[in-house]
Amino acid sequence: MRLSHRLACLVIALPPLAIVVWLFFIPFLSSAYLSLLREDQWSLRNYYLVWRLYRYDILYTLWIAFFSLVAVLVIAVFLCGYLRIHINRPVEFLFKIPLFIPFVVVGHAMRVLLAPKGTLNAALSQIGLVNMNDPPSIAFGWIGIAVCLIWKNLALAVLLVLGSYRSVDETFLEAARNFGASTFQQIKDILLPMSKASLAVAGAFMFTSMLASFSVPLMIGSGEPPQMVMIDVFYRINYQMDYGTANALGVVSYLLAMGVAGYYLRTIQKGT
Amino acid sequence: MVEVRVENVRKMYGKVEALKGASLNFKSGAMTAILGPSGCGKTTLLRSIAGFIQIDEGRVLFGNDDVTELPPQHRGTAMVFQNYALWPHMTIFGNVSYGLRLQKVPEAEIRRRVLKVLELVEIGNLSDVETRKPAALSGGQQQRVALARALVVEPKVLLMDEPLSNLDAKVRQRLRAELRRLQKQVGITAIYVTHDQEEALALADTVVLMNQGQIIQTGTPQDIYLKPGTAFAAEFLGVSNQLEGEVADGKLTIAGQTVSYAGPVRGKAVVIMRASDIQIEDPAATPRPETMALTGILEESLFLGAHYRQYIRVGRIVVMADSADPRPTGAVRLVLPSEKVQVYGQP
Hints:
The structure holds two protein chains of two kinds.
Chain A: H1 3-35, E1 37-38, E2 41-42, H2 45-85, H3 89-96, H4 103-114, H5 119-126, H6 142-166, H7 170-178, H8 183-194, H9 196-211, H10 215-220, H11 229-238, H12 243-271
Antiparallel strand pairs in A: 1-2
Chain B: E1 4-13, E2 16-26, E3 31-35, H1 42-50, E4 57-62, E5 65-66, E6 77-80, H2 92-102, H3 107-120, H4 139-151, E7 157-161, H5 169-186, E8 189-194, H6 197-203, E9 206-211, E10 214-219, H7 221-226, H8 231-236, E11 240-248, E12 251-254, E13 257-260, E14 267-274, E15 279-281, E16 291-303, E17 308-314, E18 317-323, E19 330-337, E20 342-345
Parallel strand pairs in B: 3-8, 3-9, 6-7, 7-8
Antiparallel strand pairs in B: 1-2, 1-4, 4-5, 9-10, 11-12, 11-14, 12-13, 14-20, 15-19, 16-17, 16-19, 17-18
Helix pairs in contact in B: 2-3, 2-4, 3-4
């Protein structure tokens, strides 16, 4: 490679590299370093506190992220399969709308919809399904958070999964249809297996983003334990000024996300 | 075995009329090739028969059954695609057995039929078909698997959309002969779409020539080649020269040269001469009876392997002629039997 080409490659690679180093590696190393300090002494006490106070929150976070991810992927796989086979642009657009809505707005909208005195219960009470004197509360619990994350992430999932399905040549589907494969069989037997790698990548992206959810659980959650990890980090810093434990929680979150990132890298390496 | 009939089939893509009222009978148990240039509507016709395309007008009949409104899976056809369309995540066995699994055929029967059809298409070693995936096969082998996948469900009609066009010339020629053998052996009604005239002539019992959404001519390969009904048919089949001419008083004038003409055409005409029919002679040689002769300047002679192609300037146009030997450049006479000169009136 000529020197000018090498320089050009370096110039192109430098900005994203600088961003990754500045916004990811340095904060990560700094977090890891600070999480091992307690009152200016090397200590694992921060991690002990994470274990003692937040182990259920970590499981709670993983559960919500995992549940939401599975739900999003199951819906996206079949919804996109249907939209791939029976093209319907207006419906496709409807599912992509949440892409353009910020998380805070999603949180607020779901509060209005899913709160005990919210519009969903009010509508259901009109047909006698809900008693407004003792209304169920979907909003203030893990199901409310999951509903928000599913709705918001479904748009991204539709974008990625439908894109991947569209790259499957029509003749593969026609060959199956020719033998009598139903829409469900075309999705299950052809589209899904041929898009596995893209689905894995989409799943990795969404799982990491769900782990880091903050505004939705802040607005929707119950306000009582268990909480999602990012809420814990927020309280630990703002109300207890305990940066050590907050950093330890951060490192644990990094490690969870890195596990998924490793899976992502393995998948794209297999694909190349 | 079933006869396929299409009656006055029309299909529009936006404002473009891809099929302009095509009507045709595909003989039961025979191989019919639909031949034509790109965009002539041949694939649209095939896909209309398969049911992948909803036609705007007309009917498609299998025997006495009107299948026009039926979805592809209820028509009893099987399609072999140009790109093979083998599912890459399934093994060879998985690909071939898929149709039978959808039909809920018992496992032992699936196994027996799949292995039998793979043997029929001569896939080679059958021991690893349950572990090997299509990507591990050559293009020719993949097309055999695609053919096996189509045949295993015992369709009423076998549809093939340029199945050999992605293969190299040698494999294509070998598979062509095997396709013909298989079709005769199974005795299935087969419709084969191609833009390769040689392939159509070699494979088919009947050739259907299409252009611009219309059926131009139907006949045996010999009829189509030797007695083309239109200037398009004559020009499309064989390596042909198309020249403009004019007929008046029993004389045909081409590029300023006049020859005698006794045919029915009058006025402006299109003259088609196949390169393989033209002989090149010395301009001083004695003219032969029952031939048409033009003089020209041989400009170039290219070696094409089996023969030489000569490029001869006649007036403002260049005529191609094939011969076994190269010839030196300079003045020549182009001679071809009168019956090989095809003259068509211009509309």
